[in-house]
Specification:
Elements lengths: L1 H10 L14 H10 L4 E4 L6 H7 L7 E5 L14 H10 L5 E5 L4 E5 L6 H4 L1 E3 L1 H7 L9 E3 L1 H4 L3 E6 L6 H12 L2 E4 L2 E4 L4 E7 L3 H4 L5 H6 L2 E4 L6 H11 L11 E2 L3 H16 L11 H22 L3 E2 L3 H6 L1 H5 L6 H6 L1 H21 L5 H8 L4 E2 L6 H8 L5 H6 L9 H17 L3 E3 L4 E4 L2 H5 L16
Parallel strand pairs: 1-10, 1-11, 4-7, 7-10, 12-13
Antiparallel strand pairs: 2-3, 5-6, 8-9, 14-16, 15-16
Helix pairs in contact: 11-12, 11-13, 12-13, 12-17, 17-21, 19-21
C-alpha cells in the first residue's frame, strides 16, 4: 500500500475520488498514516463517508497477487504462514500450484455487534477437518480460519468498533502486535501482513460500549471526519450522490434551481445547530440526499399529473418531502414534545429565510406584503400547473417583476418563475411579513404574530401543554 501510494502521489493522481471536502483535512491525515504503516480508526458522526473511504483503500493494493492455490489465508508462495502452505511447498517445491487474487477479494469488512465471537474474527478448531484429515485437534491443520486471517495480505475493516465485546478486542490487539493468538487453548502464531482499519462514532465510547485502552494504544492513527463546512460544498456532495438521472426522464427536462438545492442543504445546517436536535447523533449527509430525491419525486408527480415537460421543484415540494427528513433527525426532549414534523417545518422556514436573504437582499417586496395586509390570500397547490400558478401570482402587485430582478431567467419560463415566486413568499413568511398555513396558503400575518415577530416557536403555541 505504501509503495502504491507513493507512486500515486508522484504522478499527481487524485486520491479517494468522489470524496469531497476532505482535501485539506482527512485525506492528508490518511496519507500520513499509510506512509507510516499505521493501522487507523476513522472517528466521526453518521453520514461522514467513513465506510466509503475504507472501501476505497483497496485502490492502494496491488491489482493482483499470487497465492498458494487452496490457501485460506492468501499464503505467499515464497513465505507461507499456514501449515497448509508450508506443507504444499515441501511437497511440490517449484511445481506448487499458484492462484491469483484480485485486490477486491482482499478486502474483508465486518460490522461489529455484541454477538461477534473470537471464532468469527480469528478462527476455531474444526472437528470435521480433524476427522477427515486424521489430525489431532491440536494440529494447526484443523483450524477453520476467521475473517481476519482470511484478509492476510489485504485490508480488514471493522465498523462500529465500540460495539465489539472486550474479549474480542483483546484477541485483536494480540494478533495486531505480537502476531499470536490462542484458539481453544492451542497457541497459534500468525504474523499476518494486514492493514487494519476501524470506524466509530465518538459517542459510542460511552453510549453503547468502549474501545479498550490496550487496543486504542495499538491503533496508530485516529482520524476525525466531519460534515461539509459550507452549503455550496454540501450541495455538491448531494448532487453527486442523489438519484436524479432517472428512467423515464427522457421526455422531461429537470432543472433544480440553486435556491432550492441550497435551501435543502441549509435545512441540514440548521438542524445541526438546533438545540432541539440531538447533536450526539448528528444529521447525516443522507438527510440532504434523501430530501432532494423526494423533492424531485414530488415535482415529477406534478409534471405527470399536469402533462408538463419541465420538472422544476418548488418550496412546496420541500414540505412534501417531510417524510424523507423527519426519520433522519434524533430529537432531544424539547423537540420530542413538539414533534419531528413541526420541528422540521420550522427548520425549513428558517433555512428559507437564510437563503432568501442571500438572493433577494435589498429587493423591496412592500407592495406584495401590503396586498396580503389588505386581506387577500394566495393558495399555490403543489399539484397545480405552472400556468395556473402564474395566473394567481399575477394578482400580487410587483411580485413577479421584483422576483426576476436577481435571477437569470425571464417571464416566459413559467415553471422556474413559479418556483422563484413561491420561494420569495416563503422568504417573506420566514421574515414574519406574511403568514403560511399547512395547506401552503399565504395570507396576512395576524397582529398577535406580529407582536411575536422573530420568536422561534411562534408556530408551536397551539400545541397542548407547550409553553
Amino acid at each position: 500500500m505504501r509503495g502504491n501510494l507513493i507512486a500515486k502521489l508522484r504522478s499527481g493522481e487524485k486520491l479517494f475520488p468522489g470524496i469531497l471536502g476532505y482535501e485539506e483535512t482527512v485525506i492528508p491525515q490518511l496519507v500520513n498514516a499509510i506512509l507510516a504503516k499505521h493501522n487507523l480508526i476513522l472517528l466521526g458522526l453518521r453520514g461522514q463517508a467513513k465506510s466509503r473511504i475504507i472501501r476505497q483503500l483497496t485502490e492502494l493494493l496491488d491489482e493482483e497477487i499470487p497465492i498458494i492455490e487452496g490457501s485460506e489465508i492468501n499464503d505467499d508462495p515464497f513465505k507461507p504462514l499456514s501449515a497448509f502452505g508450508r506443507q504444499q511447498r515441501e511437497l511440490h517445491g517449484d511445481a506448487m500450484k499458484i492462484a491469483w487474487v484480485h485486490r477486491d477479494n482482499r478486502f474483508v469488512e465486518k460490522l461489529a455487534t455484541p454477538d461477534v465471537t473470537i471464532a468469527d474474527i480469528i478462527g476455531d478448531v474444526d472437528p470435521i477437518k480433524a476427522a477427515k484429515g486424521g489430525h489431532l485437534l491440536s494440529d494447526e491443520l484443523t483450524i477453520h480460519f476467521g475473517l481476519l486471517p482470511r484478509a492476510n495480505r489485504g485490508i480488514f475493516a471493522i465498523n462500529e468498533l465500540p460495539d465489539l465485546a472486550g474479549k474480542i478486542q483483546v484477541g485483536l490487539f494480540n494478533i495486531m502486535q505480537e502476531g499470536d493468538v490462542q484458539i481453544k487453548g492451542y497457541p497459534v502464531r500468525l504474523p499476518l501482513d494486514i492493514f487494519l482499519v476501524f470506524s466509530a462514532n465518538p459517542e459510542d465510547y460511552t453510549a453503547r460500549g468502549k474501545i479498550i485502552t490496550p487496543l486504542k494504544d495499538r491503533i496508530g492513527s485516529e482520524i476525525q471526519t466531519h460534515y461539509p463546512a459550507t452549503v455550496e460544498l454540501s450541495a455538491s456532495i448531494t448532487r453527486q450522490e442523489a438519484w436524479t438521472k432517472r428512467d423515464g426522464f427522457e421526455n422531461f427536462t429537470l432543472d433544480v434551481p440553486d435556491f432550492i438545492s441550497e435551501t435543502i442543504e441549509q435545512i441540514a445546517f440548521e438542524a445541526r445547530d438546533d438545540q432541539r436536535v440531538d447533536k450526539r447523533s448528528g444529521v447525516s449527509q443522507r438527510f440532504s440526499i434523501s430530501a432532494l430525491e423526494s423533492v424531485i419525486s414530488n415535482a415529477e408527480r406534478r409534471a405527470l399529473m399536469t402533462e408538463e415537460k419541465e420538472i422544476v421543484p418548488r418550496i412546496s415540494d420541500i414540505y412534501a418531502a417531510l417524510p424523507a427528513m423527519t426519520g433522519k433527525i434524533e430529537l432531544e426532549y424539547e423537540g420530542e414534545q413538539i414533534g419531528a414534523a413541526k420541528v422540521t417545518r420550522d427548520l425549513i422556514k428558517r433555512a428559507s429565510g437564510v437563503i432568501f436573504e442571500g438572493f433577494f437582499l435589498g429587493i423591496d417586496f412592500t407592495p406584495a406584503v401590503n396586498w396580503f395586509d389588505q386581506g387577500n390570500k394566495l393558495l399555490l397547490s403543489d399539484t397545480a400547473s405552472a400556468k395556473e400558478c402564474v395566473m394567481l401570482l399575477d394578482s400580487v402587485p410587483e411580485l413577479i417583476e421584483s422576483t426576476l430582478v436577481p435571477l437569470e431567467f425571464n417571464r416566459k419560463e413559467k415553471a422556474k418563475l413559479v418556483s422563484a415566486c413561491e420561494f420569495v413568499l416563503e422568504g417573506l413568511y420566514a421574515q414574519n411579513k406574511i403568514s403560511r398555513n399547512e395547506e401552503g396558503g399565504f395570507e396576512a400575518i395576524t397582529k398577535a404574530k406580529r407582536d411575536r415577530r422573530g420568536m422561534i416557536y411562534e408556530d408551536f403555541t397551539d400545541i397542548e401543554g407547550y409553553n
